[in-house]
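Researcher: Next sequence.
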Amino acid sequence: MKRECAEAAYKLIKNGMTIGLGGGRTIQYLIEFINMGNLDQIKVVTPSMSTALACKSHGITVIPTWLTSSLDIAFDGCDQVDESLNALKSGGAIHTQERIVAAMAKQYVLLVDSSKLVQKLTFDYPVAVEVVPEAFSYVKSQLEKMGAQVAWRTGSGKDGGVMTDQGNPVMDAAFNTVDDVAALNRRISDIPGVVDTSLFVGIAAKAIVAQPDGTVTVIDRP
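Model: Next structure:
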């Protein structure tokens, strides 16, 4: 399914475009399609080291995010997306960089298989919250007051919790029920010391959804 999804995404790319790419297996397939296709002068911006290395191995030009102010289109996966194109992007802990890439894109497209599409976000995944170190305890207490179970994310092979490339800790805030996704994201983002969250609300222009039978469905923003 991931390959079919990537093939549908490839058809949206034109010669000379500067595109944003996230991480994950579907993006790896998309890189292969770009490499095998007839497109010229494609440049890539990505927050993912694995994606950057894959592009380099296929001879695709990668430019730093800080040198770019706009992108023609950007593609990324997510943990879950709803029919209104609200998405949770908690897994990679690079959501701040991913949001920057999404904001620069004229069109931001999510690539998912049908198992990740829900009518309304269920929050089976926690909301990842990046915070400046000095605000760690304060932000944790504020999230707990909002009803979340909060933990500093840990990773295998590392002593202590996960830190971003910018040196900021990442908290996982688990919510049981959320009635208003946009309101939740605003409340968390307004806490002093919060850098960003993994909730993407009102950002995606469309989602390309791969079905088990090999077909793809495109959902446009309402």
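Model: The chain has a mean pLDDT of 92. The chain has two domains: 2-117+201-220, 127-195.
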